[in-house]
Amino acid sequence: MMSSFVAAMALACITKTLPPAVSVQAPKATLRMEVADTPKKREIGLMYRRSLPAHTGMVFVFSTDSIVGFWMKNTLIPLDMVFIGSDGVVRAVYANVPSSTLQTPESKIARRSGEGKFVFELPPGEAAKDGLVPGALVAGVQKLSALH
To answer: From the CB of residue 51, how many other CB atoms can be counted at a distance below 10 Å?
Structure first.
C-alpha cells in the first residue's frame, strides 16, 4: 500500500515539472510537443530521458529566426532534430543524432545547428515517418510565437 502511495507522489512531482505541451500538425501526423520557451527549459531540454513515445517530443521556441546550436550533453537517447522557420516551413532535418552518456567526453558529444525560430526534438526516425522534410509545412507552430 505504501509503495503505491510513493509511486503516485513521485508521478505527481514529475508531472508538475514537465513543460507545458501543445499539439502541432506535421504533414503525416499530429505531434504532442512539450514546450521549451525559456533559457532554462531550453538548456535542460530532453536531458536524462530514457525514452520518448511516438509522435511526441519537445519544441524549442526562440524569439526570432536565427542560427541556433544544440548539443546532446546528457541526452541518453538519439533524436531527430527539425529546424523550422517562423513561417512554419521546415528548413533542415538531422536524423538520428547520436545520444551521449554521462561519461561521454565533451569533445565527443554530438552538436547540430541550423536556422529557425522553432526546433523539434523527436524520437529517432520520427521526422521521416511524419513527413518532416525540408520544405514541409508544420501547421500550428506559429501559435507558439505568442509566447515571445
So the answer is: 8
Sign of CA dihedral 43, 96, 15, 64: positive
Cα–Cα distance for residue pair 108/46, rounded to 1 Å: 18
Q: In angstroms, how far is CA 119 from the centroid of its own chain?
A: 7
Compute the distance between CA of residue 41 and CA of residue 60 in angstroms, rounded to an integer. Answer: 8
Give the model confidence (pLDDT) of 82-139 as tens digits: 999 999 999 999 999 999 988 999 999 999 999 999 999 999 999 999 999 999 999 9
pLDDT at 6 over 60: no
Pairing of strands 56-71, 111-122: antiparallel
Spatial contact of 57 and 100, defined as CB atoms under 8 Å apart: no
Residues forming beta bridges with residue 32, ordered by sequence position: 23, 56
Element containing residue 12 per DSSP (H, E): helix 2-17
Strands 21-26 and 29-36: antiparallel
**pTM confidence score:** 0.84
Q: Architecture of domain 20-147 in CATH?
A: Sandwich (2.60)
What's the gap between Cα 37 and its chain centre? 11
Q: What are the extents of the domains in the chain? A: 20-147
